[in-house]
Design brief:
By secondary structure, this protein is mainly alpha-helical. It is built from four helices and no strands. Helix 3 (about 100-125) packs antiparallel against helix 4 (about 135-180).
Length: about 180
């Protein structure tokens, strides 16, 4: 027997010995896993706004923060550009009849009432001392966004009311003009 053959046999025996030791070490762990009773499958979880922060990773928080910073920079730039240029008049809502104006005013008033209720709930949530950090920033952003929506709705209602009044005056003037052209017999 040569030295090469002896080394080969020794290496092979060592490999077999190590493999059997590893297999023996893993066997009790496998037996423990088999001994455990099968766990009931977990019910699917429904995630809501209240507990969504629990599934966010730090990278998600970072991306949200970066997005908020970019939005703030963009709004600041837009505000600066708006100060430098003349403000364009708000677009008209283009109602054609008094009844259509009434319908749109009622719809906007309903939306405004809903927004005001939501704003009150947001303000209460912001007063809660448990709302801190990212949750507080989220609530503050929602408050600002919905405040802007409420202001836009108020402006729309005023504009619709003005258009309704103009239509009513025009209808009255047309009625008077037609009455003067066709006097009663």
């Amino acid at each position: 027997m040569t030295v090469k053959q002896f080394v080969r046999i020794s290496v092979a025996a060592t490999v077999i010995l190590v493999a059997s030791l590893v297999a023996a070490a893993q066997q009790p762990a496998a037996q423990k896993q088999q001994a455990k009773p099968a766990a009931k499958p977990a019910a699917p979880r429904v995630w809501t706004d209240e507990n969504i922060d629990a599934v966010r990773s730090p990278s998600d928080d970072y991306q949200i923060q970066q997005g908020q910073e970019k939005a703030q920079q963009a709004s600041a730039a837009q505000a600066a550009a708006g100060k430098n240029s003349q403000a364009a008049p708000p677009p008209t809502l283009q109602v054609k009849t008094v009844q259509e104006a009434d319908t749109m005013i009622a719809a906007r008033t309903h939306d405004l009432t809903s927004e005001q209720g939501y704003l009150q709930r947001l303000q209460e949530q912001l007063k809660d001392p448990s709302a801190t950090g990212l949750e507080e920033k989220r609530l503050q952003w929602r408050l600002e966004s919905h405040t802007a929506t409420a202001q836009r709705l108020q402006s729309d209602i005023k504009q619709l009311q003005a258009e309704k009044d103009a239509l009513a005056k025009k209808a009255a003037a047309d009625k008077d003009a037609s009455a003067s052209q066709h006097p009663s017999q």
